[in-house]
Amino acid sequence: FPLQTITGNFASVIHGLNANHLTDQVIQRSKRMILDTLGVGLLGTSTEVCHKVTQYSKIYSSDTSSTIWGHLDFQLPPLYAAFVNGVAVHSMDFDDTWHPATHPSGAILPAVIALSEAFPQKKKISGLDLLLAFNVGIEVQGRLLCFSSEARNIPKRY
């Protein structure tokens, strides 16, 4: 058998995953990670850097229904909502982390929420589907770290 490519590895793991693959422990841990990330993100909306990216991103305002956390006055396309909300989470630097050093939820949750809000009303995803998407994102990020030579020994390099 030929060696599997990185992309092939990702695809084989992700293909066919569904909410039934989430164990009770994964669901509970994911909920805690999401709650923590939302709390840090809401606190982060008060930072100067978040104010700057929010003001900048207003030029992309649209009718697309992706929420900017802490702002009820406008919405952005999913890409920009995820960016602004991700900056809010990372601006506090209290979001979750793992080794090698990365902040998984701050990169994943804003994107998953922004995309889920953009679905048409008749195709809205369930909370369990959101948890699955969140966990797939965490898994992909972890696998990227495992495949990255740059991620090795980060604490020793800094």
Automatic annotation (TrEMBL):
Any one GO molecular function term: aconitate decarboxylase activity
UniProt-recorded name of the protein: IRG1 decarboxylase
One GO CC term, this protein: mitochondrion
Family: Belongs to the PrpD family.
Gene Ontology biological-process annotations: defense response
Species: Geococcyx californianus
Domain MmgE/PrpD N-terminal: 9-150
